[in-house]
Structure to design on (579 residues):
């Protein structure tokens, strides 16, 4: 039986404000437990929440970037449940009349564009953190840290528009990229600033009605999302093929064991008893507010990628890599202003530069690499001052110290040797030092030319002009052969 | 509208409270009376009346995104019946079955 996969995602993103959503406590990650806490976020009696304006600004930014309608009138609600890390006994969220509705984003799947609908984006507060598993927690207790209580979140709810775990992965990546471009979230899944739950169901291909869904939680990495969904789809398929029925329930992904288990709770049917939050007044957003934010919005990842392909005649792949982050794209555009060969520049950025940054786990904006220095290095190669090998060998020093490549070349005496008479002598020396190889070369093993090339490079500490050496070698070897 | 024992049990479960059978029975009666009292409101036709979310005619009350000092940890934990290493300590909460 052919099944169609139906996936919808609920993504929570922590907004990178300095202070919490309803009080002035810091949102900083990693502080000692219960040190960023006050009567408001602790839910003590008699306190009143006051909304952080930046939270609304940021949520509107995301709403515009995902083609949502920004509600002119929006209200808060209480979502009630009891858990020790939720000291008020309710989470302030939005239920009816969320801030943003009816949007969509595009994802690229095998070169095709696909639209994924966004049902709504709403503002809410985070809960605290329960610690169960650490060494210092005894068997019969749970420890609670309220620092995260009241950290602002947006919840982005998609339509059930994804048809494979791959699409879900791409959608999540696209959302993350947009959030990062907008500079409204750190998007760190490991630190919990980006969290994702999925609704998954199967239906017979062609069927209109949706099948019974399960909710998959606890997927705390991008690849975890893809793997967990693959697992859950297989599980549902097996049940359906045995003519069984899917039970609507919440499943937890266990990344370490690579499997999914139903959440252990009798109280499956959530009953949050939402009601309007009387402590907060409505948020009314007028046209000007939206226009002002729209005005400041940066070019978004997919648009920027398309422009890179067009403007710099780059392959799709290059454009995708270069626009992965806003800072990297900015770096490329700064560099390209100083250098005409857009593809060569792209190769260096994607090759040496991303290798260097990857090895040191650095982002471009945190490194000492400058467009001037990278372009300077390429120009040294173009002018024949150094060869490509030397350029690669000094890249790391340049990147690490921020020193101008010209200076490194001077200091180390790395300028390329292009003096034919000087090289001529070395070439002769090398050939004479290797009579065996010469013999073989003469017997027809012509690819030994690269061996001789290597020896000349060694003798000149990599500084020889490779084109010139090649010419000289061919000439000398031919003479010897004749 | 009559409230059933099952509904009382559901509400108490959501509130994480346990009651004796006698208490449950008492609550079915009391809750039914409360609902009946409030039901009176249903006599009004509110078809074209927008819901009142707030009693004061006010909107857009904001604060700027400025960090101010929080409470010291000792004060935060001062009223906690149990604490450990700067955390609140509560009875274990994961397994519920």
């Amino acid at each position: 039986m052919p099944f169609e996969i139906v996936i919808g995602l609920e993504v929570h993103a922590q907004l990178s404000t300095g202070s919490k959503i309803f009080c002035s406590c810091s949102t900083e990650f990693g502080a000692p437990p219960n040190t960023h806490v006050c009567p408001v976020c602790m839910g003590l009696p008699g306190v009143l929440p006051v909304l952080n304006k930046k939270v609304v600004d940021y949520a509107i930014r995301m709403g515009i970037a995902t083609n949502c309608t920004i509600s002119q009138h929006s209200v808060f609600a209480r979502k009630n449940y009891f858990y020790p890390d939720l000291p008020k006994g309710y989470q302030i969220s939005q239920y009816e009349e969320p801030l943003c509705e009816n949007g969509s984003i595009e994802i690229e799947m095998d070169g095709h564009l696909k639209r994924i609908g966004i049902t709504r984006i709403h503002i809410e507060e985070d809960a605290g953190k329960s610690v169960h598993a650490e060494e210092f927690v005894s068997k019969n207790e749970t420890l609670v840290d309220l620092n995260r209580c009241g950290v602002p979140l947006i919840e982005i709810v998609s339509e059930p528009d994804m048809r494979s775990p791959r699409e879900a992965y791409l959608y999540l990546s696209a959302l993350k990229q947009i959030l990062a471009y907008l500079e409204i979230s750190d998007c760190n899944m490991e630190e919990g600033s980006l969290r994702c739950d999925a609704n998954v169901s199967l239906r017979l291909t062609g069927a209109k009605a949706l099948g019974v869904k399960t909710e998959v939680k606890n997927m705390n990495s991008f690849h975890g999302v893809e793997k967990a969904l693959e697992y859950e789809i297989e599980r549902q398929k097996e049940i359906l093929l045995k003519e069984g029925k899917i039970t609507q329930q919440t499943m937890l992904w266990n990344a370490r064991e690579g499997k999914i288990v139903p959440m252990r709770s009798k109280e499956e049917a959530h009953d949050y008893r939402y009601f309007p939050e009387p402590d907060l007044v409505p948020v009314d957003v007028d046209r000007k507010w939206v226009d002002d934010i729209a005005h400041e919005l940066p070019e978004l990842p997919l648009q920027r990628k398309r422009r890179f392909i067009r403007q710099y005649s780059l392959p799709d792949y290059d454009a995708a890599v270069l626009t992965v982050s806003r800072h990297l794209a900015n770096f490329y555009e700064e560099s390209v202003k100083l250098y005409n060969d857009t593809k060569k520049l792209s190769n260096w950025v994607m090759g040496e530069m991303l290798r260097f940054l990857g090895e040191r786990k650095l982002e471009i904006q945190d490194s000492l690499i400058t467009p001037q220095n990278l372009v300077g290095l390429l120009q040294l190669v173009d002018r024949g001052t150094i060869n490509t090998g030397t350029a690669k060998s000094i890249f790391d020093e340049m990147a690490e110290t921020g020193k101008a490549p010209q200076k490194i070349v001077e200091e180390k005496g790395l300028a390329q040797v292009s003096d034919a008479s000087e090289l001529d002598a070395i070439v002769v020396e090398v050939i004479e030092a290797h009579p065996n190889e010469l013999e073989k070369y003469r017997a027809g093993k012509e690819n030994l030319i690269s061996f001789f090339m290597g020896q000349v490079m060694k003798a000149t500490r990599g500084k020889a002009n490779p084109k010139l050496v090649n010419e000289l070698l061919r000439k000398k070897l031919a003479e010897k052969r004749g | 509208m009559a409230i059933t024992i099952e509904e009382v049990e559901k509400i108490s479960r959501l509130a994480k409270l346990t009651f004796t059978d006698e208490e449950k029975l008492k609550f079915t009666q009391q809750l039914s009376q409360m609902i009946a009292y409030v039901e009176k409101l249903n006599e009004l036709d509110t078809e074209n009346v927008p819901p009142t979310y707030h009693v004061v005619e006010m909107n857009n009350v904001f604060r700027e995104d400025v960090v101010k000092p929080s409470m010291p940890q000792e004060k935060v934990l001062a009223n906690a019946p149990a604490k450990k290493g700067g955390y609140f300590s509560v009875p274990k909460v994961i397994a519920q079955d």
User: Anything to note?
Assistant: The longest strand of chain A covers residues 112-125.
